[in-house]
Amino acid sequence: MKIDPPTRKAASRSLEAEVQSALTWLKRHSTTAALDGMARYGVPSDNALGVSMKDMKVLGEKLGHNHELALKLWDTGVYEARMMCAFVGDPARTTSAQMDHWCRDFDNWAIGDTLCFHLFDRTPFAWAKVARWSSRRDEFQKRAAFALLWSLSLHDKRAGDEPFVRALVLIERAAGDGRNFVKKAVLMALGALGRRNLALNAAAVAAAQRLVNSREPSARWIGRNALKELTSPKVTKRLKK
């Protein structure tokens, strides 16, 4: 059915009202303490209001999935509004192009990690983005690849071992990147991958051992820390069960 112009205008006004309502709610729940705390975690506060993750999740539950609203919230550029997209966005309606567009806008680790863990990992494009974004030059775009792999390692219960084994190649290739937010995400992805089952644990341990022998300081750091975790009695006992 063709929608007449007045109806489209009304829908547009209604959507804009929802955006403003969400921003008003976020401003009302902002605190100086939350804003100050962002700096301690390496999150820039230039476009932030200062709202805790707990409160953002509360608003996300109130709003539910509303993909049009998510798109508009992203366009505001406000940190908390963009964080809300992870909870409001609909995985079934999230396109490959949209994921790339948002990834290019990532300017801190928290935005990327939250979207990867609460939205992107539920889309059919997730594995393709791990491979594609892993070769990006920008620190936060590249981190997103490994945050997404980390999330898939924890959440994708249907996947077999093969995509994770292939992902080890990406991990080893990126391990030489010494930038703080990249190497930490690579480590977390390797650790999560190696905790899925005994076979992947063995493959991850072998990759970590190769990294320990690398010439790159960051690769050695990743390898040592991954080995410490993946060969620990706690992990070994859980996997054998």
Keywords:
241 residues; mainly alpha; Serine Threonine Protein Phosphatase 5, Tetratricopeptide repeat; 2 domains; 14 helices; 71% helix; 0% strand; elongated
Structure in words:
The chain is mainly α and 241 residues long. It folds into 2 domains: 1-89, no CATH class; 99-241, Serine Threonine Protein Phosphatase 5, Tetratricopeptide repeat, CATH 1.25.40. Helices cover 71% and strands 0% of the residues. It is built from 14 helices and no strands. It is elongated, with a radius of gyration of 20 Å. The chain starts with a helix and ends with a helix.
Write the layout of secondary structure elements.
Layout: H1 5-28, H2 32-40, H3 53-63, H4 67-75, H5 79-88, H6 96-105, H7 109-118, H8 126-133, H9 139-155, H10 162-174, H11 180-193, H12 198-212, H13 217-230, H14 233-240
Helix pairs in contact: 1-4, 3-5, 4-5, 5-7, 7-9, 8-9, 9-11, 10-11, 10-12, 11-13, 12-13
